[in-house]
Amino acid sequence: MLLELLLAASTVLPQSGTVRTDALWSAALGVTKHYLVYLPPSYATNTSRRYPVAYYLHGYGGDETNWVQLGHLDAAMDSLIAAGGPEMIVVMPDGDNSWYTTWNSMGDYTACKRDTTRKEPASQFCVPWPHYDDYVARDLVHHVDSVYRTTPDRAHRAIAGLSMGGYGAVELALQYPDVWRAAASHSGTLQLMYAGPHPYAGQDVYATDIDQLEKSSGPVWPSLHEALGNDTTAWRSRDPLTRVERLKATRPAMMPALYFDVGQDDPFVDQNRAFDAGLSALRVPHEYHEYPGTHNWEYWSRHVGQSLAWIGAQFKDGQ
Predict the structure, then answer these.
(1) Contact in structure between 124 and 34 (CB atoms under 8 Å)
(2) Region 15-28 average pLDDT
(3) Contact by Cβ (8 Å): 190, 276
(4) Architecture of domain 16-190+235-318
(5) Cα dihedral 266→299→173→156 (10° resolution)
(6) Are 46 and 39 contacting, i.e. CB atoms less than 8 angstroms apart?
């Protein structure tokens, strides 16, 4: 009788995926970087199966552990799979405070190594060559496809993130449309050049000089300035809406599917509204939501399941 009860329970209780820490050498950065990877429940037992992959990027001041420790992404994936959603691998890399782009300068690697005020040791934070876009899009993707049983093509890859990582996810998907089929952002800084009005009123004003960019960037200015410098042309070239315009004009069939959401009290809500309006004006399909909340982990942990479910639907539609 006890054995029957245990067998019955095993058919009801959902299986859990596993989370492990791994590392790779990045030629683009010149250092070894760590990442977390979520492997779905069947990964260990169904050894011939291959899986789609979602990459989830952390925000400013974060690291590769955030999405699991603070966002409970692994629990969200387990719940979605138990409810009948598709199984997939989720990779969560360490992106430092990089904005997931190639910097306009080399930075001061020596000074970075001497800095003792950060919570992360220099060996995990400082890089001699800040080419973070190539690190994620080329080094990391190639490494993951070679180490794990992925389905190694664009149709089975997506990228997502929060805040700085939300910007990075959308920007990378538009910069490397051959790599990712879809991109999702939570609370992303999706309009680098947006200077007002606040609140958003449908008549966008864009920064034309570095002083306006500093004012509109608010508390993220120091890190954005370190990455993008004083060249407004460099800022504009990395603005997601600029990327959309270029991709639509040159390779419209490669436009990634886009999802983004933001809290109604988030400091970047106007940027997201402007990006939504810009995409609509260009007639680029996308999904946009505003929910109660602000720029914190309470909001992101509440909504990570929605981006995961949306990504799962993109994979399903692509099969």
Answers:
(1) yes
(2) 96
(3) no
(4) 3-Layer(aba) Sandwich (3.40)
(5) -160
(6) no
Per the listing, tokens 């200077």 go with: 195
C-beta separation of 157 from 141 below 8 A = yes
Contact 96, 121 (CB under 8 A): no
Mention every residue, 6+ apart, whose C-beta is less than 8 A from residue 197: 203, 205, 270
Statement: residue 17 has pLDDT above 50? yes
Evaluate if residue 8 carries a pLDDT over 80: no
CA gap 260, 287 in Å, rounded? 6
Structure tokens at 181: 């089929």
pLDDT per residue as tens digits for the range 281-314: 999 999 999 999 999 999 999 999 999 999 999 9
pLDDT band at 181 (very low <50, low <70, confident <90, very high): very high
At 5 the pLDDT is 36
**Region class of 61: left (phi > 0), else alpha (psi between -120 and 50), else beta:** left
Task: Note whether 51 and 40 are within 8 A (CB).
Answer: yes
Enter the tokens of residue 155. Answer: 């149709």
And the tokens for 147?
């180490």
Residue 314 and residue 290: Cα distance in Å, rounded?
Answer: 21
Peptide bond into 267 cis (omega under 30): no
pTM higher than the cut 0.85: yes
Per-residue buried b or exposed e for 148-159, using 16+ beta carbons within 10 Å of the residue's own CB: bebbeebebbbb
The sign of the dihedral angle between the CA atoms of 177, 180, 185, 188 is negative
Give the residue carrying structure tokens 């994620």.
Answer: 136
Q: Which of 4, 7, 81 is nearest to 38 (CA)?
A: 81
